[in-house]
Specification:
Shape: globular
Bound molecules: nicotinamide-adenine-dinucleotide, (2S)-2,3-dihydroxy-3-methylbutanoic acid
Strand content: 25-35%
Structural class: alpha/beta
CATH architecture of the largest domain: 2-Layer Sandwich
CATH topology of the largest domain: Dihydrodipicolinate Reductase, domain 2
Helix content: 25-40%
Length: about 350
């Protein structure tokens, strides 16, 4: 198989994981990188031996020579960079959050469609091994038909030390982390038509909300709670584990701490360890997220080859992003929001 050549824009905190993931994939090579910060360009270029280095994304696209671009910058640059990729007809992966606004996200999907390029959002949490294990239990009907679910991420981890920009935005936990949890809720329970949310800011040193409780009415009748907090001090710090509860007509499942999955069905209770693999370049406690990066990248390469739309395409992620917008609107107005109204 011929080598698939990629380029990466944004050589910051999280891009290191993406570069490791790409390096592990046979037949994929990152041939060019771009960052407006020369130090980040040097660090990542040297670590991964990438010779072509650019301060300007326009210059990198003008030189070309790659089959896809991986956009790993923070949200403010996502729309212009996806539009630039579309202009050059280069398939693009864009980190979450998709965009600053739902209008931007819709414009990005339209630009990709017009250019005829694939657009995938790097929404990796649904690719985590424990989440895939939960999905498999539901799909095998081991607990019957789900009627209620909870997707929960509660932590006191100092996320701001690695990602200082998260302390500064007017929006914080729903946009940055809740977006993953909402996508998991969609992945497990289907699209949701109505959203009711409440938010709080507990940490006085940050600008945005750090606690959110969201209730989703899924189109198939399931009710779910998605709750996220970075203000929860527990005796055992669970970061970055997502805990899941699902009640079905014939049983229940509980994804608990330390990746323990308990399935209680008609024949009794079975407990399994669904821990993620610790990849050679990964480090605890991030290994769950890091493995999911490798898995979503493999998915991208497979879909690029087959021409089929990726599972977390831009089009798919509009639904997740609409839930984010709906949650903020609901919390602000104290009302339930009809999600479909935002997508029109
Ligand atoms: P960061 O600030 O550490 O890195 C971003 C880099 O992009 C910086 O080096 C910056 O100089 C560069 N950059 C920004 N705009 C640019 C432009 N227009 N052209 C060239 N370079 C540009 O940020 P981060 O923490 O690595 O986060 C990046 C993205 O990854 C964010 O959207 C964040 O939400 C996301 N993220 C995702 C996960 C996940 O699990 N999916 C985890 C962490 C972060
Ligand atoms: O996935 C993310 O975007 C990260 C983290 C998991 C730490 O919230 O910001």
């Amino acid at each position: 198989m011929a080598t698939i050549k990629g380029a990466l824009i944004g050589c910051g905190f999280f891009a290191i994981n993406q570069m490791h993931g790409w390096r592990d994939l046979p037949d994929v090579e990152i041939v060019a990188i771009c960052d407006r910060d020369p130090e980040r360009l040097r660090v990542v270029g040297d670590q991964f031996a990438v010779a072509r280095r650019y301060a300007s994304s326009e210059a990198m696209f003008a030189d070309g020579g790659f089959d896809f671009v991986d956009i790993a910058t923070t949200v403010g640059s996502h729309r212009p960079l996806v539009e630039l990729a579309a202009l050059h007809k280069v398939p693009a992966i864009c980190q979450k959050p998709f965009a600053l606004t739902l209008e931007d996200a819709k414009a990005m999907v339209a630009a990709a469609d017009r250019a005829g390029i694939a657009l995938m959002i790097h929404e990796n949490f649904r690719w985590q091994t424990p989440i895939l294990a939960v999905k498999a239990v539901i799909d095998r009907s081991e607990i019957g038909t789900p009627f209620w679910g909870r997707v929960s991420f509660r932590s006191g981890f100092d996320v701001f030390s690695g990602q200082p920009y998260l302390a500064k935005g007017k929006r914080f936990i729903i946009e940055d982390l809740g977006i993953h949890s909402l996508d998991i809720a969609r992945f497990l329970f289907g699209d949701a038509g109505r959203m009711t949310a409440r938010t709080r800011r507990i940490n006085p040193e940050i600008a945005g909300e750090d606690v959110a409780t969201m209730m989703l009415d899924h189109n198939n009748g399931i009710t779910s709670i998605v709750d996220v907090s970075y203000a929860t001090r527990l005796s055992e710090e669970p970061f970055p584990q997502t805990l899941i509860e699902v009640d079905g007509t014939r049983g229940t499942l509980r994804l608990g701490l330390d990746y323990k999955l308990a399935v209680h069905g008609p024949a009794g209770t079975v407990e399994r360890d669904v821990s993620p693999t610790l990849l050679p370049w990964a480090s605890r406690p991030w290994h769950n997220i890091q493995e999911s990066v490798a898995l979503i990248q493999r998915h991208w390469i497979e879909r690029l080859g087959s021409g089929r739309e990726p599972d977390t395409s831009g089009r798919d992620n509009l639904q997740t992003f609409a839930l984010v917008e709906a949650a903020y609107l609901s919390a602000e107005r104290g009302e339930t929001i009809v999600v479909g109204d935002l997508l029109r």
